[in-house]
């Protein structure tokens, strides 16, 4: 619903551009729904299309708002200040076009320009299709192998650029020049007391939720057993007249609904206690073949992320929600802090930005002819930063715009989304907290614990681990077959592909018996003091699961083939 392609022409709109944009829009629609007719706007030198449009995508003349924002003046006018919100903006008038990202880049905008056209889109594929050519960016290869993502700033096509978090790009339509402005992402120190910090953060949260409203005939709240969606539920519940109208959903393995401490189990009980509507969707029941499941996952997300565990049903949940008239979901993405890390290596692991050289089975990746992995300077720990400040800056500057935004893309062909906990005002308050209040999201959790009713939190996930989905006989056979394809051989060395396919494992069910060494390891993990565990683990290199690695190679091959058509 927010697959958007927006084009400014320097002189006049090209002939057949309207028809071309319509065809591209149809190609971007999910293949398991009958999508709404594309909305195409054409005026002066501007042409844009919204794929599978709904009322939750806001437009005004030549401007588009994805998400929600607070603006004292008109939001659609370029250069007007945005006071709060979680959004991506494309706004234009006769003189200029401006694209804007929020404080954490929660919605990704890609852009391309030459002497004749300026293109902005939420879809890399849309831009490539409009250009009719593809220039593969091999810089994404090591990042996909080590993280399952495209990395911090890269796109599949080397000509495309990603608008960074807390940035804007301005096109002067007369001179046809681009000007990019990026706000520094910093965590300034504050002398506030704990009580004062708590008050400032709570005020920011309350202020944001006073400015958002949801029609629960169109919007639903995905509910897990965690603090983020619990906070959203309680904050929204206090602002609506009839909480019984609030609709929530949870998804995961069918058995999870009955397991105490599980996301699904806890979410159901939270819904019961608060009197809201709730529905559970099992994701381990699918009539789709492995080929269809992988095709739909990769094409819906354009290969930006490898987190397939919640989509083993072949996007049946999202098809059902769309057909039931759901137009938007309220996601609990947040940036209140992250987990304790004992070393810089652990920081990279926890944030999903570890390098190939950080993994024992990818350390020698260069010998296979894989391009050298580029690590931007801004992602390095600065001299003035503690490890925990660096960790949380990377969460805002890398993980949210790279990982979380990619996870959003998977669903955005079916529904719109709102992420109120990523609003600018809340993020600004978080960045003034001292490290210890952000670590493990301590202050945010204390705020949520004050909400009523007090209910248990989940200790385990309702979905299956990715490696469990990727180690079935049919899935492994499919992935191994691709490793031998001509397209695979054109991208990777035969030695690398053979190694990847050979190391992949097929699930043996419950037939594996733990060895004495395994049993002793489990006992150590259970009873050893935490400081010893941290010391041992701090610099021990992990290995990428072999089936996940083969899937990542598959994603690269698939996207290269798809975009080359």
Automatic annotation (TrEMBL):
<dbReference type="InterPro" id="IPR014729">
    <property type="entry name" value="Rossmann-like_a/b/a_fold"/>
</dbReference>
<dbReference type="InterPro" id="IPR029055">
    <property type="entry name" value="Ntn_hydrolases_N"/>
</dbReference>
<protein>
    <recommendedName>
        <fullName>Asparagine synthase (Glutamine-hydrolysing)</fullName>
    </recommendedName>
</protein>
């Amino acid at each position: 619903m927010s697959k958007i392609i927006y084009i400014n022409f320097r002189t006049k709109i090209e002939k057949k551009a309207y028809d071309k944009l319509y065809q591209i829009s149809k190609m971007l629609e999910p293949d398991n729904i009958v999508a709404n007719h594309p909305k195409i706007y054409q005026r002066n030198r501007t042409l844009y299309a919204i794929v599978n449009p709904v009322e939750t995508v806001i437009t005004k003349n030549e401007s588009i708002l994805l998400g929600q924002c607070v603006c004292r003046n008109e939001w659609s006018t370029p250069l007007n200040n945005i006071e709060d919100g979680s959004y991506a903006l494309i706004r234009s008038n006769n003189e200029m076009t401006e694209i804007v990202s929020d404080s954490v880049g929660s919605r990704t905008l890609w852009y391309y320009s030459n002497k004749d056209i300026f293109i902005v889109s939420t879809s890399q594929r849309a831009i490539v299709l409009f250009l009719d050519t593809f220039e593969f960016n091999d810089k994404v290869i090591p990042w996909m192998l080590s993280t399952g993502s495209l990395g911090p700033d890269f796109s599949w096509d080397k000509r495309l650029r990603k608008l960074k978090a807390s940035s804007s790009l301005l096109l002067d339509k007369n001179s046809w020049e681009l000007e990019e402005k990026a706000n520094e992402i910093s965590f300034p120190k504050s002398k506030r007391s704990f009580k004062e910090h708590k008050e400032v953060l709570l005020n920011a949260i309350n202020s944001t939720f006073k400015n958002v409203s949801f029609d629960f005939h169109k919007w639903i709240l995905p509910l897990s057993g965690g603090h983020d969606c619990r906070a959203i539920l309680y904050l929204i519940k206090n602002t609506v007249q009839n909480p019984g109208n609030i609709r929530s959903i949870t998804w995961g393995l069918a058995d999870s609904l009955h397991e105490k401490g599980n996301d699904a189990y806890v979410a159901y009980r939270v819904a019961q206690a608060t009197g809201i509507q709730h529905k559970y969707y099992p994701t381990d029941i699918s009539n789709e073949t492995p080929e269809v499941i992988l095709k739909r996952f990769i094409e819906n997300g354009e290969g930006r992320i490898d987190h397939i565990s919640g989509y083993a049903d072949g996007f049946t949940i999202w098809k059902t929600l769309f057909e039931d008239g759901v137009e938007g979901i309220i996601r609990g993405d947040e940036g209140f802090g992250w987990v304790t890390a004992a070393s810089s290596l652990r920081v990279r692991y926890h944030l999903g930005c570890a390098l190939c050289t950080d993994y024992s089975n990818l350390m020698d990746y260069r010998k296979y002819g894989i391009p050298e992995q580029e690590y931007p300077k801004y992602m390095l720990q600065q001299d003035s930063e503690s490890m925990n400040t660096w960790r949380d800056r990377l969460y805002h500057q890398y993980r949210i715009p790279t990982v979380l935004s990619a996870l959003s893309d998977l669903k955005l062909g079916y529904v719109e989304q709102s992420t109120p906990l990523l609003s600018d005002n809340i993020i600004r308050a978080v960045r003034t907290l001292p490290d210890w209040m952000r670590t493990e999201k301590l202050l945010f959790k204390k705020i949520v614990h004050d909400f009523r009713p007090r209910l248990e939190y989940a200790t385990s996930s309702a979905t299956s681990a990715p490696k469990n989905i990727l180690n079935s006989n049919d899935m492994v056979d499919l992935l191994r077959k691709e490793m031998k394809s001509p397209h695979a051989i054109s991208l990777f060395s035969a030695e690398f592909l053979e190694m990847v396919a050979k190391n992949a494992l097929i699930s043996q069910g419950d037939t594996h018996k733990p060895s004495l060494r395994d049993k002793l390891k489990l006992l150590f993990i259970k009873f050893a003091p935490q400081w010893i565990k941290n010391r041992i683990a701090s610099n021990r290199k992990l290995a990428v699961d072999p089936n996940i690695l083969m899937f990542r190679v598959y994603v690269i091959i698939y996207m290269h083939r798809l975009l080359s058509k």
